Predict the structure of Exodeoxyribonuclease III.
Amino acid sequence: MKIATFNINGIKARIETLPRWLDEAQPDVALLQEIKSVDEAFPREIFEERGYTVETHGMKSFNGVAILSKLPLEDVTRGLPGDDNDEQARYIEATVMGERPIRVCGLYLPNGNPAPGPKYDYKLAWMKRLQARAETLLAQEEPFLMAGDYNIIPQDEDAAKPEDWQEDALARPESRAAYRRLLNLGLTEAFRARNKMAGMYSFWDYQAGAWNRNNGIRIDHFLLSPQCADLLLDCQIDKEERGRSKPSDHVPVWIDLAA
DNA sequence: ATGGTCGCTGGGCGA
């Protein structure tokens, strides 16, 4: 089973790019971030006619996540538990009913800039809630994954120019420590588990010719529970998408599971 | 080089 994560940076702007990528890459499941659309305006027919079930958790203008799946979805939940006052649409979960059911959590972790400040406090608080959710799911000892735009550069090798990011919310020590605490629960970061080579990125800024200079960062990740990691066959980045017409500033990352 | 470029939206914010 092929599961992908893709921060599309606006469904309206990706109305041709996204279906073309789906037709070529043929993921069974696609976790989308930054749909930047309310649920009612999401063009679900485009995906349904390709055989996908569509579940969205959107809001006006910003953020928004979605799950596309060729397999049935059960127990869809929207929003990250732990703060009833959080109105930002950044999290969705569902169980993919393949031969082995897998709980998938699609997330758009807060950017957190400028740091320090209230936006950074929100990011760290959100990561604490994500930690709690991971602990709850781990206790069930079933296959699950948390994937999406983490807005975290895990290590210096995950940035072309790490010196540019030292004070940034994506790479500050508190950000990296919170991400490391997640991993230390026993989750496997799929790309690092399957690729030894550094210099692989998932985001290139639109500004200052970042793509042409390969000035990228790796911030889109798959974290797998032990039972899910046992099924991991491969993890790759569809880097070439960034060089095509009307690209998102992120590219898809995908895993292949023996499930 | 304190800029640069996108997307959503309809002015300015977010990234």
Q: What stands out?
A: The CA atoms of residues 6 and 252 of chain A lie 4 Å apart. Residues 9-10, 12-13, 34, 36-37, 60-62, 111, 113, 151, 205-210, 249 of chain A lie near DNA strand B (CB under 10 Å from a C1').
